[in-house]
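Q: Got a minute? One more chain.
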Amino acid sequence: MFTLNQVIACVVRQYGTGQYRSCVSLNKGSTICLSTHDDEQSAAETINLFWEACHKGEIKQSEDVALFLKSIRGEIALAM
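A: Always. Here it is, folded:
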């Protein structure tokens, strides 16, 4: 189990592709790409959705990230 102060979330720009990735690191040596976007704002919105889910207690362990990703698929499609 992880705590919020251990989680690192950021938007990473992939140079040469024009793409932005929403990434989270739940523990040392583990990084998960939540989504890839055409613009930085959409990628940041995904990070915000991730933090909201963490604060609601929906993400308590790394296995919960897969459920989170399934739940936001429609929201990501709307943001693009």
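A: The chain has one domain: 4-79.
Q: Perfect, thanks.
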